[in-house]
Amino acid sequence: MAERRDEKLGVMVCGHGSRDDNAVAEFANLAKGLKTRLGDMPVEYGYLEFATPVIRTGLDALRAAGVTRILAVPGMLFAAGHAKNDIPSVLNTYAAGHAGLRIDYGRELGTDTRMMRAAAARIEEALAQAGDGVARHDTLLMVVGRGASDPDANSNVAKVMRMLWEGFGFGWGETAYSGVTFPLVEPALERAVRLGFRRIIVFPYFLFTGILVDRIYEHTDRVAARHPQIEFVKAGYLNDHPLVVETFLERIDEILNGANLMNCALCKYREQVLGFEGEVGLAQASHHHHVEGIGTAGGDHHHDHDHDHDHGHGHGHDHGYGHDHGHGHDHGHDHGHHPYPHADHPLGPKSLKGHD
């Protein structure tokens, strides 16, 4: 990551914050892991709310270290209201108040292949602990996302689930959410039970622990108690898996290399998304200023923040757009491709034989 002679680079990792001390500690550890990998480059971190340091404090520390160009990345899996609106608002306000300081904002972790491999590792760990007594075709994977009032972010959880389902070759895959949207974990698991699989793996696609991850596991236990004939396996969340750190490094590098493409094609603030048509072009503003630093670090603010703080504020910066020219048709003949790894899936191609 080269820097020009007239600038000094620094990295700012922007998190949401949590009332859970363990979640805050895990975020801090990840930021320290990034600092180790980046050598002499200054790295700071901060939160929107419920924990300290707040983002502004981290930015102050970078300026004090002589940084003139800050590479800011959201410490978030997907781009919903926090990544699209709240963090940019804080960064833009800060930059406007400090002449000569440049802040470039990176994109969320997203559905990167590294993230998929990190997720797969957590599932593999859970499978190893559970044993091989149940075949993968008799196993259902339930991927649980945080849940947001942003359909683009929610749809990405479903994409993660599909990639993991297909990658492992499980018998079935389902998606659930810990809050805000639907289906929630308990009703989703009750539906999944009816499909008749012998084992259900519940995987929270979360970076860090916290009340929502605890709730996912609690709801899993409730359903498991009602259905003792099914084995329920609780996989661990992502945390600071080395491939998560690698993805953060890639996002930082993208800022410098000009390939920083946040997905604006399905952003409800920019485009007419079904059900959210009234939110196009709303003004960008952060509502987190009144709760910065309150909560974990000894504050007395008792607002329950389990819901998504996406109140429809737009984001006024230009991310740039990529173009997907993928071919979605089925040739129906062999061009020498590698064999499909799950051609023998009981609900796959073989099940269609005799129905042509």
Examine the secondary-structure arrangement and name the CATH architecture of the largest domain: 3-Layer(aba) Sandwich
Would you count the extended β strands for me?
Answer: 8
- Helical content (DSSP H or I, runs of 4+): 25-40%
Q: How many individual domains?
A: 2
Do you know the CATH topology of the largest domain? Answer: Rossmann fold
CATH class value of the largest domain: Alpha Beta
Overall average pLDDT: 82
The helix/strand class is alpha/beta
Strand content: 5-15%
- Order of strands, widest sheet: 2-1-3-4
Q: Gap between N and C termini, in Å?
A: 56 Å
Could you tell me the radius of gyration in angstroms? 22 Å
Distinct helical segment count: 8
Outline the biggest β-sheet: 4 strands, parallel
Per-chain topology:
Blueprint: E1 9-15, H1 21-38, E2 43-47, H2 55-64, E3 69-74, H3 81-96, E4 102-105, H4 113-130, E5 139-145, H5 151-168, E6 172-177, H6 185-193, E7 199-204, H7 211-226, E8 231-234, H8 242-257
Parallel strand pairs: 1-2, 1-3, 3-4, 5-6, 5-7, 7-8
